[in-house]
Amino acid sequence: MAVPFTLEVKALSKSFGATQALKDVSLTVQSGLVHALIGENGAGKSTLVKILKGDLAPDGGELLWNGVSFRPWASGKDRSRVAMIYQELNLAPHLKGVQNLFLGRERSRGAGFLLEREMKAEAERVLSLLEHGDIPLDVPVGRLSPAYRQILEIAKALLADANIVIMDEPTSSLSQRDTEVLFRVVRRLSESGVGVVYISHFLEEIKEVAHGFTVLRDGTVSGRGEVGNSSVESLVEMMVGGFEGLALPPPPPCTGKNLLTVRDLQGPFLPHPLNLTLREGEILGITGLVGAGKSEALRTLFGLLPRQGGVVEGPHGPLPETPSALTREGWGFLSEDRKEEGVALALSLRENVSLIPSGEYVKGGGWILRVRGGVRVQGFLKRLSVLFRSLEQPAGELSGGNQQKVAFARLLNAEASIVVLDEPTRGVDIKAKGQIYKIIRELASQGRGVLVAGSYFSELLPLCHRIVVMYRGRIVAEREASAWSERDLLLTATVGRESLSEKKR
Description:
Layout: E1 6-16, E2 19-30, E3 34-38, H1 45-53, E4 60-65, E5 68-69, H2 76-79, E6 82-85, H3 97-101, H4 116-129, H5 146-159, E7 164-168, H6 176-191, E8 195-199, H7 203-209, E9 212-217, E10 220-226, H8 232-240, E11 258-267, E12 270-279, E13 283-287, H9 294-301, E14 309-314, E15 317-318, H10 323-328, E16 331-334, H11 338-342, H12 349-353, E17 362-363, E18 367-368, H13 370-383, H14 400-414, E19 418-422, H15 430-445, E20 449-453, H16 457-463, E21 466-471, E22 474-480, H17 486-495
Parallel strand pairs: 3-8, 3-9, 6-7, 7-8, 13-20, 13-21, 16-19, 19-20
Antiparallel strand pairs: 1-2, 1-4, 4-5, 9-10, 11-12, 11-14, 14-15, 17-18, 21-22
Helix pairs in contact: 4-5, 13-14
């Protein structure tokens, strides 16, 4: 049982140039309790937790640990009391899993001899706790899926044995099943006396695991209280000043011709041939648990992973196999790995959105008409409510959720006829989700075909025309979205068949 503590945050402020990220922010974190930190993208959450972890120093205010000054940005001892699970994964891609988990905390016998077996055994114990003993620890983590890397990030924080664990959107790459496992881990941490700061845009998660909450809006506290005494609607009201939710009407019937036919597609991470079709104006959902093959299927289709067999055809015949050629054919792709593939962090917002320029704004020699193109880019960014100060601002200066919206703006600018989306709302707030889903609907209404991989059944069901379920690299079920329930989707994704009585193929 951890030693009881109280961390008080008093009147914190922090500015970056003319932008005030935090103003007079106060809250309390206690041992054995889960405290939720809620707010839209850009509300100040990431800045606050970076101060708690010691990655930033505040401009004003103070932190108190049991009434004594607490300065993790200046004290290694204070810093070690807080572990962080970052939304943007903080792993070294070239190092193996076990090396990442103990980076900076390697166990040795002296004279540089590492206790490798001991570290691997401890890593395997924590991964078993997370019900993912199948994750290979002896390969570079850059070869693992974003979901597996997210699990390793969680395991790394648990191995730190800290008093406080901060979880920044920890379920953004997890399936529903893995989310439930994480909730059990959070409860065990709480029961052992650890304090948890839990950040999530999924308010149903907040209701499930948290005791108290603090809401940030525009860098200030707009609400606080006990989770059990607050409705989802009231939390949203504190976040955005109104409740719009994600309510979508049923999609209109889809009767268009086939835009895409996939027969017996094979790839290095597709152990079974993949077959599917996509029609004009159709939104096709692909779901399944972590490791089911959703991302691998989309990446093979788009040529990011090599095709090893099968046929991929459009209305006019076979389609090319490389991303550049498919882009010229009118395909757009949004990766779930925002940090590595979603945006170019060093480039400006203008450059990011215009990486695939629309022909309307290009003239001889490939020169983009800067003024007209800038107006167009700005329009897409405002449409998605991206918080930015200038089109020339580097994308890396934005919050993770706003970076995701920039990546989506690039697809809108490209005017793709087939849009491939891998977890398109990962790390974005509830308001932005509603905006993105409405835009997906708009794209479909214009006759475009949309392939969308997602882990949250409650979000796919109202959005899609059809939903297919993958299990261990193959499609095991396909229905109209209206014929699925959340329970049926979960059951199928978990056991690999549509009913418990059905024999496995």
